[in-house]
Amino acid sequence: MPEDFHFLLLPGFSALGFMSAVEPLRVANRFRTELYRWHVLSIDGAPVRASNGIPVAAEAACADVERVDTVFVVAGFEPLACYTRALGDWLRQQHRHGATLGGIDTGSFVLAEAGLFDASQPLTVHWEALAAFRERYPRLKATQELFEIDARRITCAGGTASIDMMLDLIGRRHGAELAAVISEQFVVSRIRQRSDSQRLEIAARYGVHNRKLIQVIGTMQRHMENPLGSDALAQEVSITRRQLERLFSATLNDTPTRFYQNLRLDRARELLQQTDMSITSVCVACGFESPSHFSRAYRARFGMSPRNDRCATR
């Protein structure tokens, strides 16, 4: 019997994350006799528009489907905008019936909101939403992995990581050789492991190769709520503050203070756009000394106030 996968698409879902999950199933069927079937669901049975504006037809409303074997919730920005008690009830019902539940991109938010993760159960989301997830669900074990497969929970960061997740699942069920054949069809030269990084390494992202600079940027990223001063950052890599400033200026045409502040402002924007945290709470979480300082810095970087930026995305 073919294995059935259901995909519950939420408005604004990631088209890339969805198609990257479906296409490996299609190619698997090309090389073996109908190993998989897939079905598209929506909340109300109507077509669902992806974040890129393309509508995708649904076969049914999720409430009209009594039982599934595996269902992936596929979401994008604002994954909880369409969350309802009825949706949570349906997902919990599938769990009680023994279904495997999955989340693609930010789909894990929906499963978490429905109370479908144990505190010890690893899960993942798209890196851009990770901080927001951890703020909203601090007791859950959110990781930075490409995907997590644990008992009856499968979560994935979305994007092309959906390919790697599906190839892993196909390899477990039907062998590594078939997974490799499918990978080659997509001109993917290496199947990534779950522990591979979601993001480019610091060196590639910022175009830097100095080890001390890379280490300092990593330290900045780990200390957002309680920022370290330039002296402390310099001590981390055994150089003087002046040497650190010259290093930033020569390599990034920036100062350590401004670079660090921009990292924290970028994090603040993620939290404002993807959570319901108050502006004051975001200010504190990102290490700003006062709401007024935060608002001035935010406006200088993004051209609008934190409040207006949040309203523009809702």
UniProtKB/TrEMBL annotation:
Using the record's annotation, list all stretches that form the HTH araC/xylS-type domain: 214-312
| Claim: Transcription is one of the keywords in the record | yes
| A GO MF term | DNA-binding transcription factor activity
Organism in which the protein naturally occurs: Burkholderia multivorans
A Pfam family: DJ-1_PfpI
Q: Which InterPro entries match?
A: Class_I_gatase-like (IPR029062), DJ-1/PfpI (IPR002818), Homeodomain-like_sf (IPR009057), HTH_AraC (IPR018060), HTH_AraC-typ_CS (IPR018062), INH-QAR (IPR052158), Tscrpt_reg_AraC-type_HTH (IPR020449)
Protein's UniProt name: Transcriptional regulator
**Which keywords does the record carry?**
DNA-binding, Transcription, Transcription regulation
Asked whether the keyword Transcription regulation is assigned, the reply is yes
